[in-house]
Amino acid sequence: MKKVLAIMLVMLMAFAMCPTFAMAAEGETLILGTSADYAPFEFMYPNDDGEMVYGGIDIFVAEYLAEATGKELVIENMAFDYLLAALQKGDYDIVIAAMEETEERLNAADFSDPYYTDYPAMILVKADKAEELATLADFDGLYVAAQTGTTKLDIANNDMPGANVVALQNVNDIINQLVNDKIDAAVLDGGVALEFADAEESLAIAVASDELGAAAPFCVAVQKGDPKGLLPGINEAIAQMIEEGKVEEFVQMADDLSGVAEEVSADAPEA
Amino acid sequence: METRTEPIISVRNLVKTYNNGEIHALDDCSIDIAKGEVVAIIGPSGSGKSTMLRSLNLLEEPTSGSIFFNGVNLSDKSVDINLHRQKMGMVFQHFNLFPHMTVKKNITLAPVHLKLKTQAEADAMAEKLLKRIGLPDKADEYPAMLSGGQKQRIAIIRALAMEPDVMLFDEPTSALDPEMVGEVLDVMKELAHEGMTMVVVTHEMGFAREVGDRVVFMDSGKIVEQGTPSEIFDNPQNPRLKDFLAKVL
Amino acid sequence: MWWSNLFKDMSPASFFNFSFLPKYGQLFVQGVEYTLLLAVVSVALAVIPALVLALMRLSKNKFIKGIAGAYIAVFRSTPLLVQLSIIYFGLFGVIQIPRITILGFVDLSRFIPGVVALALNSSAYVAEIFRGGILAVDIGQTEAARSLGLNKFACMRFVVLPQAIKNVLPAIANEIITMVKESSICSMLGMAELMFGAKAAASATYITLAPYTLAALIYFCINYPASKGIEAIERRMRRGDKN
Prior knowledge:
The complex is a heterotrimer of chains A (271), B (249) and C (243). Chain B has 249 residues and is α/β, with parallel strands linked by helices. Chain B contains nine helices and ten strands. Chain B has a six-stranded mixed β-sheet, sandwiched between helices. In chain C, α1 packs antiparallel against α2. The longest helix of chain C is centred in the first third of the chain and has 37 residues. Classes of the chains: A alpha/beta (271), B alpha/beta (249), C mainly alpha (243).
């Protein structure tokens, strides 16, 4: 018993004194909270050295904002529905996570000007049903999933009368359930829905998606009341970013990075 | 039975009940034990004889009544019972040696921890005691390696290492294989001859008759009859004692 | 790699589409390290409070007993995710941990709240293990020690606890195994443990199922041999105990 305890203590002390730790100085950093399970907006990928790093449209936007405001970007990962709570707690300076401004969210955070407008939300279904599900009313009695804490969940709840709504934590779970017929449809960000319709043969975009209308734009969230005074700088940088046409560039970069699955298989024969 | 010397233990009106008074384990028991006396307590199982013995050092807390040891009322809450237990050695039916300690450590733990002896002094005493019971080579063994008879002899000297004024024995041979009973009783007889005050709860009628100065018969939580061994065994008065003796002898 | 071809035509929702491995394997390696670190450190931190709780539970003082009982009841009767969320956002909303990274991938401002939550939870379970272990020590041991004049504390320290701790070591090792599994919940708060690695790989590659299959395999390969090993040790200890 004593030995075990001693070993554990030594381990702990080794951590405490570990010389490799890096400490980010306060004030010079811009801490981004995001939910990196949402390609192509934010996800993890291995860089050339094989280290896991964050990438995606939102990450590139954050990098741009950090550079424009002269700060060093630090990225923190968290489940999507905890992001605003952690922002309020003071863990992050900003949250960028394919997040639209809504009335509820305004209670918990302040939002910048829009930086990007995605495809409108789309409904992903099994390919053989894509045609017959032509209107939102056709989902009466079906099981429809959306991600917890998102505006897609609001759509499922409010605009699809009679649908049984299932709120799930992350997109992968939604796709798994859809593929395995546990649910009949999923309301997703258009970009994400298109990626999965492309990657997974058995899935397609339902015709009814046309009824969902235009997408709300994505904004950068800061702490309620903006106590750190970040919003003016951020809005200025966003305006400049849009003017420079950077966003389209970011979308292209993210496209190149994501879809690692196909890339891996394509690489295989040479390796 | 009258004793001239001041009693070393004096029990007055001892009552012990369980389940909020439903069960009377001890019912108004009083007894004096003189210095150097060997008292054997006999009786059918459930008669309260073990409860009586265990009350003497407060392993059982009495419901009412008092126990005087060397003139101090042990049942008084302000008394530090730990101090007095040091002077009352106890031997249990199931030995209760500490299995994670060597024999020597079993014997020296209490005297050393209670600062009665240094480790060296305690070790020396342990070796002397072990030699006395014929087990000098067992000092560094663990209890699991010993026979029942050896364990009980070591349990006895563990108690003796505290240099007690009185030794309490709670059915010390009941858990032993028959061939090992003798070696334990021999140690107890030797102790009695050296003048140790002993209270022995036992089923060994031969031992009670041979070694006991006095025999106490208990039944249903009461002391029913007491006297010299010959009074109790050869001329019992109480019908329950007669009945008991007819069964065990 | 030759085997990458195997996955070429597999559906992204296939159980065994492991084509993400060459690129995302590292996430899983790190994830295992993080998971083991979480489990071992949190159970290690739980031992001392658990012992205190167990002794409080065995106390005759109703107040002390009640406090420990309430603590154990609360932590055993609420989900770990709820406890984790409350501790992370509540307790560590007040106490701010500096953002220090050790070992290259363990961010202390996450790791510490996670470990504290797991340790608080675990201490409730370990306390009950200790309590059981203490009660399992023959009452005769206490009586013998007390009859020699040792006080309660010395009796506990020299006689009862050494025997109790030996008895409960396998159960504590099992608690580490439980924590290896339970700590997967920390992925919710972005701690880079194994489940987090699986989620990250799944979302980046659109391969939605196989990363979880791999995570399950890894959890199994850690826990099954470990629990078998503990069983073997337990059997040997029991043999040693026979008198």
